[in-house]
TrEMBL record:
Cofactor binding annotation: Binds 1 Mo-molybdopterin (Mo-MPT) cofactor per subunit.
This enzyme's EC code(s): 1.8.5.-
Record keywords, A-Z: Membrane, Metal-binding, Molybdenum, Oxidoreductase, Signal, Transmembrane, Transmembrane helix
Keyword presence, Transmembrane: yes
SUPFAM superfamilies in UniProt: Oxidoreductase molybdopterin-binding domain (SSF56524)
Name of a matching Pfam family: Oxidored_molyb
General function of this protein: Part of the MsrPQ system that repairs oxidized cell envelope proteins containing methionine sulfoxide residues (Met-O), using respiratory chain electrons. Thus protects these proteins from oxidative-stress damage caused by reactive species of oxygen and chlorine. MsrPQ is essential for the maintenance of envelope integrity under bleach stress, rescuing a wide series of structurally unrelated cell envelope proteins from methionine oxidation. The catalytic subunit MsrP is non-stereospecific, being able to reduce both (R-) and (S-) diastereoisomers of methionine sulfoxide.
Record family assignment: Belongs to the MsrP family.
Transmembrane annotation, as ranges: 26-47
Molecular function terms, GO-annotated: metal ion binding; molybdopterin cofactor binding; oxidoreductase activity, acting on a sulfur group of donors, quinone or similar compound as acceptor
Species of the source: Hyalangium minutum
Catalytic activity: L-methionyl-[protein] + a quinone + H2O = L-methionyl-(R)-S-oxide-[protein] + a quinol; L-methionyl-[protein] + a quinone + H2O = L-methionyl-(S)-S-oxide-[protein] + a quinol
HAMAP family referenced in this protein's UniProt entry, alphabetically: MsrP
Protein name: Protein-methionine-sulfoxide reductase catalytic subunit MsrP
Amino acid sequence: MSDKKAPEPPSSEITPEKLYLRRREFIKNAGLFVGTAGVVGGGLYLLGLKRTQPMDSFVPDAGVLPSLAPAQGSSPYDTDEAKTPFADVTTYNNFYEFGLDKNDPARNAHVLKTRPWTVTIDGEVNKPQTVDIDQLLKWFPTEERVYRMRCVEAWSMVIPWNGFPLGELIKRVEPTSRAKYVAFTTLMDPEQMPGQKRPVLDWPYVEGLRIDEAVHPLTLLAVGLYGKTLPNQNGAPLRLVVPWKYGFKGIKSIVKITLTEQEPPTTWNLASPHEYGFYANVNPAVDHPRWSQATERRVGEYSRRPTLPFNGYAEQVASLYTGMDLRENY
Ligand SMILES: Nc1nc2c(c(=O)[nH]1)N[C@H]1C(S)=C(S)[C@@H](COP(=O)(O)O)O[C@H]1N2
Ligand SMILES: [Mo]
C-alpha cells in the first residue's frame, strides 16, 4: 500500500519494541508480521474461521441492526459525492483491538458487548458525570452527516453517519476556564478486545482534540451509520468523527472524555511521533515519511484522486489554524 520505500530511521533510534508499534505495512516489511499474525487479534481461533468464510457473510444484516430515529433535516455540511457502500464501510476497517487486517474487525468485533455502556465525562468541567449511552441518546437528537473520511494510509470513503455534535455534550457538562483540550479513551478490556493482549499499541487507545476543534460544529459523536445503530467494527456504541483530520483521530468505543489543561497524549503519536502528530489535519502538502499524502484511493474506485487540504473542509476549519505552521504541527 505504501507509495514510497520506507526511509529507515537510524538503527540507534529503533528498538525491537518500537518495531511492534508501526503500522501493519511496516510490520510486514520488517518481516515481523508472519510472527505476530497468529497472536494479534486474539489467537488461533481467528485463523480457523478466517480464510474459509466469504467476506460477504460478515456484512452486518442491515435488516436486523436497530434503526435510529430518523435524522432531522439535512446538514449544510453534507457532501453529495457517492456514498461508499454499506458492505465496504462495515468490512474494511481499522480497529486494532480486533486485529490488524482490514477485515478482522468485521470478523471479530461481534464479541464486544455494547450494552450496558457508560461514558464518563470529567476533568475541567463543573458537572463531571458518568452517563449511560441510552441516556446520552435521549439528551441529544441524532443528525445525519454525510462526510468524507480520509485515512493516513491514503484510502478514503464517504460515510453517512448518525450522531450528535460533540459540542452539545461539552456545553452540557460546563467546561471550566482551564479547559483547553479534550482527551478520549477507548474501552480497555483484553477479554473482549483480544488485540489488547499484544503490545501492538499502547492500550487503551487514546486520542485528543483542542477544545475549539472539539466544539466545532463539524465534530460529531457518532452512534450510527446508514440510519442503523453503529456496527461494532465501526466503533460502537460511540465513536468520534472529525472529518478534516486523518481517520486515526476518530477514536472508537469511547468510555471516557476528559477535559484537560494540557495537550493529552494520543496513541499513534506515542507509537511513532515523527510519523503521526497531534493535529493530523489532512494535508496533501505534508507527506507521511512512508507514503505520499498528495492523492488517495476512494474505496471502490480504481484511479486515485487528489487529496484536498483539510479533506475538503478548509472553508469551515482553516481559520482554526491561522498563524500556525501546519508543517511543524502535522
Ligand atoms: N480504538 C480505536 N479507534 C480507532 C482505531 C483503532 O485501531 N482503535 N483506528 C483508527 C483508524 S486508523 C481509522 S482510519 C478509523 C477507521 O474507522 P472505520 O473502520 O469506521 O472506517 O478508526 C480509527 N479509530
Ligand atoms: Mo487510519
